[in-house]
Amino acid sequence: MNVTEFVLLGLTHTREAQVVLFVLFFLFYVMILVGNFLIIATIKTSSCLNSPMYFLLCNLSFIDVCYSSVTSPRMLVDLLSQRMTISFNGCMAQLFFLHFVGAAEMFLLTVMAYDRYVAICRPLHYMTVMNRSVCCLLVAACWMGGFIHSIVQMLLTIQLPFCGPNQIDNYFCDVPPVIRLACIDIYVIELLMISNSGLISLMCFLVLVGSYTVILVTIQFYFTEGRWKALSTCASHITVVSLFFGPCIFIYLRPSSNLSADKGISVIYTILTPMLNPLIYTFRNKEVKSSMRKLWRQHVFPVFGDCGGLDKGEPPEVKS
């Protein structure tokens, strides 16, 4: 008999702990939505923030909203439910969109590291290399890469026979815990999963580390003014990137296991990282904070002064 629904075991079985987690994750999810939508509105409405860096940041905020919305609403509902179930089709859909948006974010973070590399290491060619057409093509390639990756992951999973048991030891549907429920030997499927998800995560992370290493070396030897601010910003970016890629590499670059710690680690890249991205990438940026204040004042005063400060033809500096 084929499985028609899965039972999600969630993060905890204690009712009191479920209530505490609901309040905590609800606040996190609200912060993700408010923070990222505020960034999108600020960048879209401000003529000051028209450089490639802010275009990519705007797309990162949109991806973070989509990524967190794949798992968070369902998890919040399940924390208040007595029985946490999801249909087979719903599980496959969640798995598809999780890898679709997640892989797109990996590729976009890699593109953003390349953008910072060009801005700092090749400043005279920045506006030529990272023009708007190139940025649009790069973002489209990120989404296309995410779609191809996700299609492969879903096809590897959906063709497996599931005849029971149907309990997933996680709070969302993902490839590793789902394929463990298949009624056949999954050794080959695991190898394909590792070569797909695991290697993509590892390669993107290595490219990011390489880009930021070159950036840090360039700042150290060729820049004096604003060096510590730039170093602080790059260190913050590397921290957030590590929080996103580290758990992904740990989960997807090894055969599936019954480690209950996996679902706790999943919280880092599905909830915490989308919440930290606005704080690290944007809210520490002076131009963004200034534009946010002006956007707020425009709702009170119909006329406000010009934005000034950021020249359209000048590559953005790395600021904190």
Automatic annotation (TrEMBL):
Q: Where are the transmembrane segments?
A: 20-41, 53-72, 92-114, 134-156, 199-223, 230-253, 265-283
Pfam families on file: 7tm_4
Could you tell me the membrane topology recorded for this protein? Multi-pass membrane protein
**What keywords were assigned to this record?**
Cell membrane, G-protein coupled receptor, Membrane, Olfaction, Receptor, Sensory transduction, Transducer, Transmembrane, Transmembrane helix
Keyword Transferase part of the UniProt annotation: no
Q: Where in the cell is it found?
A: Cell membrane; Membrane
- What is one term from the GO cellular component aspect held by the record? plasma membrane
Q: Name the Gene3D superfamilies for this protein.
A: Rhodopsin 7-helix transmembrane proteins
* GO molecular function (one): G protein-coupled receptor activity
What the entry lists under SUPFAM superfamilies is as follows: Family A G protein-coupled receptor-like (SSF81321)
PROSITE patterns in the record, alphabetically?
G_PROTEIN_RECEP_F1_1, G_PROTEIN_RECEP_F1_2
Where is the G-protein coupled receptors family 1 profile domain positioned along the sequence? 35-281
InterPro entries for this protein? GPCR_Rhodpsn, GPCR_Rhodpsn_7TM, Olfact_rcpt, Olfactory_Receptors
What the record says about family reads: Belongs to the G-protein coupled receptor 1 family.
Which protein, by its recorded name, is this?
Olfactory receptor
Please tell me the species this chain comes from. Sphenodon punctatus
